[in-house]
Design brief:
The structure is a single chain. This protein is α+β, with helices and mostly antiparallel strands. Helices cover 32% and strands 32% of the residues. The strands form two sheets. An eight-stranded antiparallel beta sheet has the order 2-4-5-6-10-9-8-7, with helices on both faces. The chain has a two-stranded antiparallel sheet with strand order 1-3. The chain is globular and about 45 Å long.
């Protein structure tokens, strides 16, 4: 699988996260229906670093929990629990959410957060790049459509930002491509 196939798969998985968020309610420490506020670029970069550390041949949820992340639950708008292959994590004092999937070929940890203003999307990308370079000095960056991909194989992080319903946000999909699996 080449980098472009990986990029397309990451986009498809990120789109499924976006769709899933539209249909369910995530129960974390916030009251039901509460909207999370914007995060700083540094908080988003910290969450991406945590995902980077936890994503390997599988997602190490124990590692995330050691880093302060707590698992949440999904429920329908009427409050009933729903089964989903996505697992959601939140952290005390943070407005950032993590969404996990454990695809056997490509485990994913997706970071989702609102930002205060559209300019913060670029600031977040810069903070993410700096934090990932600190973890892996061999990190490379490239453009992919309107996003940025940070690559230090076997890990990749795809950063996308946008403005939906007048609110700017950032989505970062961190994945691991198992070198043994083709």
């Amino acid at each position: 699988m080449n980098i472009w196939n990986i990029s397309l798969k990451m986009r498809a998985m990120a789109q499924s996260v976006k769709i899933a968020l539209g249909f369910g309610v995530i129960a974390l420490a916030a009251p039901a229906g509460a909207e999370l506020g914007p995060s700083t670029p540094e908080a988003i970069a910290g969450a991406v670093s945590d995902c980077w550390a936890a994503v390997g041949p599988s997602v190490d949820e124990t590692k995330l929990q050691q880093l302060g992340w707590k698992v949440g639950t999904w429920s329908s708008p009427d409050g009933k629990a729903e089964a989903t292959p996505l697992r959601v994590y939140g952290k005390a004092g943070s407005n950032v959410l993590l969404m996990l999937t454990d695809d056997a070929q490509m485990p994913l940890c997706t970071v989702l957060s609102a930002v205060a203003k559209p300019d913060d999307i670029n600031l977040a990308a810069g903070a993410i790049q700096n934090s990932l370079i600190a973890l892996d000095p061999e990190l490379k960056a490239t453009r992919s459509g309107k996003g940025i991909v940070f690559i230090a194989l076997p890990r990749l992080a795809m950063v996308n930002g946008g403005v939906g319903k007048g609110k700017p946000s950032v989505r970062v999909v961190v994945s691991y491509r198992n070198p043994e699996k083709k």
